[in-house]
Amino acid sequence: MSSDWKKETLGVGEWMGRMEAARHPMAEKLYAMYSSVTDGITIDPAMMFVPVDDHMVHRGDGLFESFKCVDGNIYNLDAHLERLEKACGTMEIDLPVTLDELAGITVQTIRAGGRRDALVRLLVSRGTGTMGVNPYECSCAEIYIVVYKLTKCDVGEMPAGVRVITSAVPLKPGFFATVKTCNYLPNVLMKKEAVDAGVDFVVSIDENGNLGEGATENVGIVTPERELLMPPAERVLAGTTAKRALQLAQSLVANGLLKCAEFRAIPIETARAAAEMHIYGTTPNVTPVTEFDGAPVGDGQPGPVAAALFEMLKNDMTPDSRRLTNVFDE
What we know:
Helix content is 29%, strand content 23%. The chain is an alpha+beta fold.
């Protein structure tokens, strides 16, 4: 055996010292973490870890939500927590705290990080206690909340437009598509696909040739007949931003800009003939798609529906909005 392969067994002090050195570059990106294992919050990236025997780590057996805090306010927290609770019921994972307690812990964790602009990842695992596949050998559900850098926090100006292509990665089966599990391998491959192709996003197509979803985003179109359509939740994750955009769009139906705004299957041919295409998500908000599979969408410019939805969502994030949870001001 080569001596180069030999690794020493480290004591706690040496192990933690090396861990601190390895994690030091993350100090500017990772702000705070809560772990129910310790029932406390740390702001030291070297301490932000999950036990290796957690079922979420080695089996992907967990759920998560991602949301943002902008200028000291969490946007749409209730919708995220309600979706998490529903997913826990589907996966038969018992949340160890109430939603009110979870909201309170989230606020405290963001506050400990000290940044008014941040992304938040809230994870619920089935728990620790086994390296096997049997979920009944896990001790109890665990919660991890990570507060980290928000790289795009300017919601004041709509993006000029993005390029999108269809994905070759198969769409998840319906049961797994509708819950936000920690098994995100297809989503990772879709993001890799977008980067490799030099485009901003990819969107999946189901076995019937209908539009699906992006790696972490929802998609919608506006038809030439002024119909705002989004894929139904049977085969895609029901995104909180997309759902809110569809609710807000009802006012555009009322004022005549749109004929209707609804969930409906979207054949790929209909998507290619769209007057507008949009990406919806926590970070992109409402982003117009100006090129789809190499061809311009509509006239190749952001459309009026995208502009209207962007402004309404922006107003939804103003300080007097009912959809904001204040973090720092008491």
